[in-house]
Design brief:
CATH class: Alpha Beta
CATH topology: Glycerol-3-phosphate (1)-acyltransferase
Helix content: 40-55%
Number of domains: 1
Strand content: 5-15%
Length: about 270
């Protein structure tokens, strides 16, 4: 990929103009969160199972421990509408809200888009650049600071609901911080009824959405075993990613049952 196709890094502002950065994220994050909450809770027929576990992870994880949430990616509106699961007080605090990996060739193609998505704490990931690209390193640094990162580790909108191998970047983000992040998976169905993956791409009201939040994955133990074995970085990334994939697959089977029982489709 030519360097011209890769957008300029949008987060120098955090270091060079910290007050401007605080203003930017305060301008974008709360309004988007409020709209997401209104749509998710009031304009959709949404049901979230085990929502308290997400709230607890966002609010009360140990000080200094990062949080990684992971889920499937079935609609272009998954981000940000699914954050309507959160409490109002989470959504209006720009510092509390997640960082999110976003496709550079979709969200960062125009100056206004770049400003908006960067201000909303979305980080441009370049497809094909691998796990050591700047965006993944930046997200690792956020976790190192005890912040929250949300990932769609399938790496793209999964239109056909296939069982895709997760990208190993999530494994790097678990393995490399000095303190192992808390990992919380969840699975959802119905968001591609809210915004179908076909033209005219108009959101639809009153659609059934079912979300199942899993249990926190404390991966310190497996990381300790891998380090004692002197596993390579590549092996660590693979094993951690496969463990997360297994949890998501278990949630998928359970949420399919819950969603179909409500009259939704798999």
């Amino acid at each position: 990929m030519s360097s011209d196709a890769i957008p300029a890094w949008p987060f120098h502002v955090i270091r060079t103009h910290p007050r401007l950065w605080r203003l930017r994220k305060a301008t974008i994050v709360p309004p988007v969160g409020i709209l997401s909450k209104l749509f998710f809770d009031y304009l959709s027929k949404s049901v979230t199972h085990n929502r308290d576990t997400l709230w607890e992870a966002v609010e009360n994880r140990p000080a200094g421990q990062g949080l990684i949430t992971v889920c499937n990616h079935y609609s272009c509106l998954d981000e940000p509408i699914l954050h309507g699961m959160l409490k109002w007080r989470h959504l209006v605090r720009a510092d509390t809200m997640r960082w999110s990996a976003a496709a550079h060739d979709i969200c960062f193609t125009q100056p206004l888009h770049r400003w908006f998505f960067a201000s909303g704490k979305c980080v441009p990931v370049v497809r094909g650049e691998g796990v050591h690209q700047r965006a993944v390193t930046f997200l690792r640094e956020r976790l190192q600071r005890g912040e929250w990162v949300h990932l769609f580790p399938e790496g793209r909108v999964n239109v056909q609901h296939e069982r895709l191998r997760l990208k190993w970047g999530v494994g790097r983000l678990v393995a490399e911080p000095a303190r192992c992040p808390l990992v919380l998976p969840f699975y959802h169905l119905g968001m591609d009824d809210v915004l179908p993956n076909r033209t005219p791409y108009i959101p639809r009201l009153g659609q059934k959405v079912t979300v199942l939040v899993g249990e926190p994955m404390e991966l310190d133990g497996i990381m300790a075993v891998l380090r004692r074995r002197r596993a390579s970085s590549r092996e660590m990334r693979r094993i951690i990613t496969e463990r997360i994939q297994g949890e998501l697959e278990m949630l998928r089977r359970r949420v399919e049952t819950l969603h179909v029982a409500r009259g939704g489709r798999r």
